[in-house]
Specification:
The structure is a homodimer of 142-residue chains. The first copy, chain A, is mainly alpha-helical and 142 residues long. Chain A is built from six helices and three strands; from the N terminus they run ααβααββαα. Chain A has one domain: Arc Repressor Mutant, subunit A (Orthogonal Bundle). The two termini of chain A are 33 Å apart. Chain A binds a DNA duplex (23 and 23 nucleotides) through helix 3 and helix 4.
DNA sequence: TATTGTTATACTCTATAACTATA
DNA sequence: TATAGTTATAGAGTATAACAATA
């Protein structure tokens, strides 16, 4: 076959885009935007400072204020004082926030089931190749 | 190894996200947002109606008006009358628009070079697997 | 002085609803 | 009646610049 690099990148972009659409649809079912779901998911995995959220979102720190404001006004996260540095605010998920993310994860299983189209060997191969590719793609804008 | 589906999806999402960041950075060098670069790229491939652009962007048709307005005010696209149906407006790239997209494509080559980390067989394998996966992922929100 | 988070501002993208002009 | 595109509106995400509190 001999796939051109541009062709292959197009397919990577298409798969990435399709995944994002699916994720956005699942998040919307909980009344969350994709960015809100991403932040809430991160906070559920581990409480973390505003600054760290900005890095996770690859956006300016000033934006995080509004995003967390909206989550907090819905009672999905709390801002807690940093234990050592009093400038830092730690974003922590509430029980309600945790429940919302659990629902998102549950719904994402139907998206994950798209992988059933691949056999186990294909999944392992895909995983290995993508992990090899990821650092190269990530460092370009880093 | 035996990769879990969730693990594999995380890597797919990470690669998709990294690609998007790279694309956004390249588009920004031409003063374009990612959405603008996508619309302009589509118009350069072939002139097409507003309605078709809305489908390509997976957004409401009303949004396309503003996006095309901004491209048109910069002289990158033109709205032309539809040949048969007078309701339709065909978005066509200008020479300047074409030049901007050529610059984007040129810059994207450095992103494509991330694929040099893979040998030819890996690229063919990756392409084949992703193409098998794409329809499954796409139909969920379709 | 440097860093964390916030505010103020402006722009883009987004959906919804109501409108027009065509078909 | 239905469709293509627009307008009006409101909300969310984004960057920049200036600021307060803390380090």
């Amino acid at each position: 076959m001999s796939t051109s690099k541009a062709e292959l990148m197009d397919v990577i972009a298409a798969v990435g885009g399709a995944y994002y659409q699916d994720f956005a649809a699942v998040a919307a079912r909980q009344g969350l935007t994709p960015v809100q779901a991403k932040v809430l998911g991160a906070a559920v995995r581990a409480p973390l400072p505003m600054r760290a959220l900005a890095e996770a979102l690859v956006c300016d720190a000033s934006n995080v204020t509004g995003i967390v404001d909206r989550l907090e006004s819905r009672g999905l996260v709390r801002r807690e004082a940093g234990p050592q540095d009093r400038r830092v605010k730690i974003v922590t998920a509430t029980d309600e926030g945790r429940a919302a993310i659990l629902a998102v994860r549950e719904d994402m299983k139907s998206v994950h089931d798209a992988l059933d189209r691949l056999d186990e060997q294909e999944r392992d191969t895909l995983h290995a190749i993508l992990q090899k590719l990821l650092p190269e793609l990530s460092q370009l804008t880093a």
